[in-house]
Every structure is written in structure tokens, then in C-alpha cells.
Amino acid sequence: MESFSRYGITLLRLRREDNEILRSWRNNPYNAMQMREQAGRKIGQEEQKAWFERIKNSKNAFYFIAHYKNKPIGCLSIKDIDWDELCGDPGSVFDPDFADENPIIKFCCEFASHDFYFEELKLDFTHTFVKSSNKQAIRYNKFIGYEHLEKFDENGFSYFKLSSNKYFETRNAALLTFRKVYDDTLGL
Q1: What is the homologous superfamily of the domain 3-182 according to CATH?
Q2: Please, which of 7, 49, 60, 142 could form a disulfide with 108 given CB 3.0 to 4.6 Å?
């Protein structure tokens, strides 16, 4: 699937020409410190290109650039998909210039991507690791229904899991509230 749209967000499959914008988001100092594999280090152009070549045709990973009002605002992904267990590891990184704008838009991005994971890919659950110092991400993950399953590991990351049933229950309640508050001005 090359695109998926929900809640005013369009997810477009990552393309080679998106590499530099994604690399700039990943190299933002705050973003780089939150990413498990990156651990704060800068990603070079050649490393980004090699990474893209490895993932571009993967059947076990999907990467999307999220667009809001035709502007790229972040990358949402699911990787390490286990088709036997019907699970995968989602992730997101947002344009730091967009990060302080309406936080509901970030939720809409996450809702759109999780709808794709659970409806289109038919996954039963997602699981992810969140850095202990990233309090915002921990609150966010709990808000959309993730359960904290393990204490923080030696690298400062904790394990969270979300079932499709819990996700839809939480998402539906959140969207109802968002629609009341924003009077559907966001296109929810």
C-alpha cells in the first residue's frame, strides 16, 4: 500500500527522495536521544541511503511520511513484523519545527498509523520500547492504550504493549472527545 488517509492525515510510503528530510528529523538532538538504535549519534548521508536500501522492499516493515495539509510533518513506521504472531514494533519521529504545534495532530498521525497496522495489516498487537526520560512519550503511549509490561532495562528503555481491542476502545473514546472540543475543525 502506497498511501493511507485518516483524520486529516495522509501517510505516504517512504520514498528515496524523503531520505534527507527524514535524516534531518532523526538528527535533531532531542529526537536522536530518544531513538533506541541511534542513541544520540548523528546519521550520515551514506548511512541513511544504505538504511533506505535495506528497508525499501521489506515485507516486515512499513515506513510512511505523514502529511498534514500537504506538509510533511513526521515519519511513522512499523518494523520487525512477526507474521506468525501478528505483531510489530511501531515508531515515530516528528519534524521538530512542527512538534510544538497542535498536539492533537500528532495523535491523529498515531491514530492513522495504528489504524493501518490493525485494520490493513491485521496485526493483533504492537509492542515498543520507550526511553525512561521521555516522559511525554510514556504519557502518550499510555493515553492511547499501551500497557507498561516491564521495568526499565539497563539502557533506560521500558517495554510497552498494545492490543488491537484496547487500541480501538481507547481511540474511539479519544476521537469522541477531540470532536467535541475541536468541533470537527480538524477534519476528524
Answers
A1: Gcn5-related N-acetyltransferase (GNAT) (3.40.630.30)
A2: 7
What residue type is 101 in one-letter code?
Answer: E
**Nine-digit cell string for 156:** 533506560
Q: Using the Cα atoms of residue 62, residue 87, residue 74 and residue 151 in order, give the sign of their dihedral.
A: negative
Distance CA 117, CA 91 (A): 12
This prediction's pTM: 0.88
Residue with cell 491514530: 111
pLDDT digits (tens, 9 = 90+) for 113-148: 999 999 999 999 999 988 888 888 888 889 899 999
Span 23-28, mean pLDDT? 81
Domain boundaries, the chain: 3-182
Cell numbers at 110, concatenated: 498515531
